[in-house]
Write a structure and sequence with these properties.
Length: about 290
């Protein structure tokens, strides 16, 4: 599993911001062609992104590109411009049907053949941000073997569904939970919504903790100041890692003795507890805390 604790949006039309982002210790950098770029600079942004992908050292950060929605007529040209430069992942916005991901899949198949890259080496993450998308989420999750994650698009969803957007976000709890559950069911990562107030880090941290409690593995960020607090929330601490290791060791010992459950520190440990421990260690490995 790839660590995607924090994914930072950077406007594809601003080379200076891309260069700065490349120097940050962030899990992923989303070079944006959609909302972060004005209509009259989208063609220019394609070339800036392609050049940045070809020449800049992004360090350990995953290189992602968010294309424009297919209904704009720009998506195909976006992909044609950036794919030769070798992005690792494509973010597909406004995914409200399996057909959109299947269309992307076909384009990426051809790009991989042309570049003689391994099939399915370019990954895809879908932005889920409309009422229709949530109604069809099960089918969307099964649309492509490339699909590795779902991103919760709160702002577009509230606009589409006629919800009142509140600071507390209680109007989003059902949809947020629904996305996390579908991601878990289909072995996908769940990436939480953007916190648009980038100066209130206490609020950001509380929102990220709630997302982690719901089963999210990461969060979208829009400012460098948001990176460290978000990545910390989605990283298991040393105490959690050590307890998870003890649980797994105890489970192996119990299995060797023909027992399904065992006790640890006065508490009963059974399969659900073992699965949570395995998840903790998987996230720790992804974060580079374990071999």
């Amino acid at each position: 599993m790839r660590a995607r604790r924090a994914l930072l949006y950077v406007p594809g039309s601003d080379l200076h911001k891309i260069e700065k982002a490349a120097s940050l210790d962030v899990d992923g950098i989303i070079l944006d062609l959609e909302d972060g770029v004005s209509a009259n600079r989208k063609d220019e942004a394609r070339q800036i992104i392609a050049g940045a992908l070809s020449t800049l050292d992004f360090g350990r950060s995953e290189r992602l590109v968010r294309i424009n929605p297919f209904y704009t007529g720009r998506a195909e040209a976006d992909l044609a411009a950036v794919l030769p430069a070798g992005p690792e992942t494509i973010i597909v916005p406004k995914v409200d049907s399996p057909a959109i991901l299947q269309k992307v899949d076909a384009i990426l198949d051809q790009a991989e053949r042309t570049a003689r890259r391994q099939k399915d080496s370019i990954e895809v993450i879908a932005l889920i941000e409309s009422a229709k998308a949530f109604v069809g989420l099960r089918e969307i999750c099964q649309a492509s073997a490339r699909l590795k994650g779902l991103i919760f698009g709160a702002e577009d969803l509230t606009a589409d569904a006629g919800m009142t957007r509140t600071p507390a976000g209680t109007e989003l709890l059902y949809a947020r939970s629904m996305l996390a559950l579908h991601a878990a069911a289909f072995d996908l990562q769940a990436i939480d919504m953007v916190q648009t107030n980038f100066t209130d880090l206490e609020r950001l941290t509380a929102e990220a903790r709630q997302a982690a409690d719901l089963g999210y593995t990461g969060k979208q960020v829009i400012h460098p100041a948001q990176i460290a607090p978000v990545q910390k929330v989605f990283t298991p601490d040393q105490a959690a890692i050590e307890r998870a290791q003890r649980i797994i060791a105890g489970a192996e010992e119990a299995a060797a003795g023909g027992r399904g459950a065992f006790s640890l520190d006065g508490e009963m440990v059974d399969l659900p507890v073992i699965k949570r421990a395995q998840s903790t260690l998987t996230r720790a490995r992804a974060a580079g805390l374990l071999d």
